[in-house]
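> call design_seq(struct)
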């Protein structure tokens, strides 16, 4: 892939400025789209097989087609919450190439004939929101947003909104609640956001990720067939991979879907620093199951289906690497602390489960755990599986079960080491004290 489609700031200096964006073909895709019927726009995006980049990989055109056209009030909500640990791709788009997102969101809005677009940003993005407001104003002055967009007879407003720093507000139904001024907790579904009763202000709503929508202008300009030449048939297009942890050149890499872990890590990102061995890979931040860095894993293509086949998820492709120095049980304890903190508390299995799991990990780190605690961790996590109201509860199970499956030795080593240290120091906690601490 010679040129960047999403991270155009890397090729075109100051592409974030309205005039520069327009000089480089900006807003031509929106002009083209409003000359088509809304249904034809949806058909192109459907044919491109663009899949949502927010985590689940759901086909975008199909999502848009769920919106009942008969509803008079419809919304597009842009998910710019970007809270997954290790994810920092939407930020670069928002900072470096904001007009392409605005254009993509307006095309989505035209396709479903939305009356307004809301961009929901994580609270820390206050400076990005201020800049987006200025960009929206520039586009409005040119008739690209607001009443009678480009003389099409269709009117659509665009607003930004800042969250207040909760991971759960990236989950689409919690995000909608938060945007409405309600407590940021997930809703019971159905009704789904695309249905009347399930969306923003209970109107039919499309929720899409920033990166997803930033693909859309290119697809409208170049067509679905050209888009499908990038990536693989089931997972087409470019993807921004966020690389962090033990890697020589951390950062965002825009490359086609379908390249392997090995190509990404060793050819593009310079491999593992200090001659260390790669031990473990988190392909999707804290929320997806960890993978051991075997040859089979390293040669797996980065597509939604191939990563699922080896027992994990591509998610938003926030790839965190751990070298041989990391005890993966320790890493799991950090992730559990995160999930216990971010659980919204609405449903019992997640609220109680993450609390107790966090406490077991604390016992492990404090040297109060015994061998049977590994089975207890696995048992508590298994009881949470499939019974939580939203996917956060499922995410919280992954650090436990996948790390025990692939790195049980790290748990055992930790427990053994702690026992040995206790013996050496001849200061084992009195039995009663230990029991109370549990
Ligand atoms: C706990 C949790 C956090 C999430 N955080 C985000 C997020 O920060 N950004 C995002 O785009 N999607 C996030 N999602 C996924 C959204 O619920 C939703 O699937 C996505 O915004 C849909 O957009 P897409 O179809 O373009 O991928 C999260 C989901 C869960 C369960
Ligand atoms: S699974 Fe967790 S985050 Fe999701 S609704 Fe239940 S308590 Fe809240």
């Amino acid at each position: 892939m010679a040129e960047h489609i999403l991270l155009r700031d890397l090729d075109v200096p100051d592409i974030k400025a309205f005039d520069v964006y327009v000089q480089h073909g900006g807003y031509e895709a929106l002009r083209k789209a409003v000359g088509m019927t809304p249904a034809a726009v949806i058909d192109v995006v459907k044919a491109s097989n663009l899949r949502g980049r927010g985590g689940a990989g759901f086909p975008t055109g199909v999502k848009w087609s769920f919106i009942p056209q008969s509803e008079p009030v419809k919304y597009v909500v842009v998910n710019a919450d970007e809270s997954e640990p290790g994810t920092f791709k939407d930020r670069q788009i928002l900072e470096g190439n904001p007009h392409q997102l605005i254009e993509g969101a307006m095309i989505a809005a035209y396709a479903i004939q939305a009356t307004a677009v809301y961009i929901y940003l994580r609270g820390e993005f206050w400076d990005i929101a201020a800049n987006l407001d200025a960009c929206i104003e520039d586009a409005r002055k040119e008739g690209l947003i607001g009443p009678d967009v480009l003389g099409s007879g269709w009117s659509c407003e665009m607003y930004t909104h800042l969250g207040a720093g909760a991971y759960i507000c990236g989950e689409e139904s919690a995000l909608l609640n938060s945007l409405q001024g309600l407590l940021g907790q997930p809703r019971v579904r159905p009704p789904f956001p695309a249905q009347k009763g399930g969306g923003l202000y209970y109107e039919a709503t499309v929720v899409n990720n920033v990166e997803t929508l930033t693909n859309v202008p290119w697809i409208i300009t170049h067509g679905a067939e050209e888009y499908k030449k990038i990536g693989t048939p089931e997972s087409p297009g470019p993807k921004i991979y966020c690389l962090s942890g033990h890697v020589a050149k951390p950062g965002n890499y825009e490359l086609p879907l379908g390249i392997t872990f090995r190509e990404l890590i060793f050819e593009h990102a310079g491999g593992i620093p200090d001659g260390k061995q790669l031990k473990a890979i988190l392909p999707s931040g804290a929320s997806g199951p960890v993978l051991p860095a075997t040859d089979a894993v390293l040669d797996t293509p980065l597509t939604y289906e191939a990563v699922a086949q080896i027992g994990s998820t591509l998610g938003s492709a926030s790839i965190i690497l751990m070298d041989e120095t990391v005890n993966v049980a320790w890493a799991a304890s950090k992730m559990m602390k995160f999930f216990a903190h971010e659980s919204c508390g609405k449903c019992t299995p997640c609220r109680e489960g993450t609390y107790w799991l966090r406490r077991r990990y604390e016992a492990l780190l404090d040297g109060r755990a015994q061998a049977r605690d590994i089975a207890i961790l696995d048992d508590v996590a298994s009881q949470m599986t499939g019974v939580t109201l939203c996917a956060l509860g499922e995410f919280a199970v992954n650090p436990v079960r996948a790390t025990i499956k692939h790195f049980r030795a790290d748990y055992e080593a930790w427990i053994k080491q702690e026992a040995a240290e206790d013996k050496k120091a001849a200061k084992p906690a009195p039995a009663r004290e230990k029991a109370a601490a549990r």
